[in-house]
């Protein structure tokens, strides 16, 4: 059964569980932070697509007091969880605008310095991926960047076995790792790394390159 991100139980356990599912989860976010710090101006406006429970928002708010954020998520339960976290850790949420919906709900006149879509696009059905990235591109300023991070299609069946074994080493039980592989068939829509690069280029990004790879998880840096 596909995971229900509207479920309060799923959302409440998300932050702990994701670190067992995604090898190097926190290192990826350190890379993201370093890239944003390098490329963004002092008063940046950042779009976070699929804000989840607010992990990205929390560390970026703390480290960049002059940045503002628009956070989008189709799960109202996730947005409420993020708001609870930020109220606890930061109090002042005037620099964050939450949007309940997908990328089609983004304001027409929005212009962002950067966008993050971390562990989001692999849930987007194949025919809709182009529209997903086109919506993000439309909202970016010239030379603004998109950072994405997703699971890519495996070229050999043993790659999934390696991923399963690694996830067991970082905290999943055998049963949980088997369920993880089942979910890949149920609610993931995977493309290869080369297909992702081609898709981002076709949408209209001028520069597309890989900033991170761990097994079949790839991070793409794309610039408008």
What structural keywords apply?
224 residues; alpha/beta; Rossmann fold; 7-stranded mixed β-sheet; 9 helices; 45% helix; globular
Round the Cα radius of gyration to an integer and report it: 17 Å
| Broad structural category | alpha/beta
CATH class wording: Alpha Beta
CATH superfamily: Vaccinia Virus protein VP39
Shape: globular
**Could you tell me the strand content as a percent range?**
15-25%
Describe the main β-sheet briefly: 7 strands, mixed
For the termini, the CA-CA separation is: 37 Å
Helix content estimate? 40-55%
Number of helices, counting only DSSP H or I runs of 4 residues or more: 9
What is the CATH architecture term?
Answer: 3-Layer(aba) Sandwich
How much is the average pLDDT? 91
Based on DSSP secondary structure assignment, what is the total number of beta strands? 7
Order of helices and strands: HHHEHEHEEHEHHHEE
Please give the order of strands in the largest beta sheet. 3-2-1-4-5-7-6
GO molecular function, one term: methyltransferase activity
Protein name: Methyltransferase domain-containing protein
Organism: Acinetobacter johnsonii
Keywords: Methyltransferase, Transferase
